[in-house]
Amino acid sequence: GDSVTQMEGPVTLSEEAFLTINCTYTATGYPSLFWYVQYPGEGLQLLLKATKADDKGSNKGFEATYRKETTSFHLEKGSVQVSDSAVYFCATGGGATNKLIFGTGTLLAVQP
Amino acid sequence: DVKVTQSSRYLVKRTGEKVFLECVQDMDHENMFWYRQDPGLGLRLIYFSYDVKMKEKGDIPEGYSVSREKKERFSLILESASTNQTSMYLCASMEAGGETQYFGPGTRLLVL
Q: CA nearest A94 in B: which residue?
């Protein structure tokens, strides 16, 4: 079945550092890919998404590119802030199934 | 803005009790979902519903049931709570044909 593998955390960075959180997927067909973010004490919210190969999703300075050849959707940000501290979830799915498959989540802690 | 609310943020119950977790969405979405979130396991789908009175099992339905009597409300029921059901429970909704799920803030359930 479909699955998502993302790098384990926690990831600890200093403010203004470069961020990469790796995500790879296995799926049948051509699913959409998502990054969701969960801030402390809150539910998940969509950060960005890409619906087809080579699409780049972007939001709040974060970017991820749908790479079909490497089945990857790595999340990047050029300069993180303390306010980016959260848990980040990679997910695949959408389409006819209406269901999402989530990775295990990566905790990001940004220190001032 | 889509709003998904959950009846309780924190809940403490005893083993064997019947537990009701309520979720309400205000955007007339057809699809609603219940997940549990556990460290190292990410989000796992318990049940989902694509219409009133319709439900489908997710990946881990054992020990749970659901009810969708009205479009805006999706209830998760633990018939006889057990300690291994201690977890964070997240509800989500999504419009028909959509891809973005909107999450509530979660209910942290402790079963003693």
A: B99
Would you state the pLDDT for residue B106? 95
Chunked mean pLDDT (size 10), chain A, 112 residues = 87 97 90 94 93 95 96 97 97 76 94 95
| C-alpha span between A104 and B45 (Å, rounded) | 13
Whole-Å CA distances, A96 to B35, B54, B88: 19, 16, 27
Distance in angstroms (rounded) separating the CA atoms of residues B90 and B6: 8
Query: Which residue type occupies B107?
Result: T
Q: A99 contacts in B (CB within 8 Å)?
A: 33, 45, 48, 58
Q: Report yes or no: B12 at the A interface, CB cutoff 8 Å.
A: no
Q: Which residues pair with B42 in a beta bridge?
A: B38
Q: Which residue of B has its CA nearest to A93?
A: B99
Cα–Cα dist B80/B51, whole Å: 26
| pLDDT tens digits along B14-66 | 999 999 999 999 999 999 999 999 988 889 999 999 999 899 999 999 999 99
Distance CA A48, CA A55 (A): 11
Check if the beta carbon of residue A105 is closer than 8 Å to that of residue B42. yes
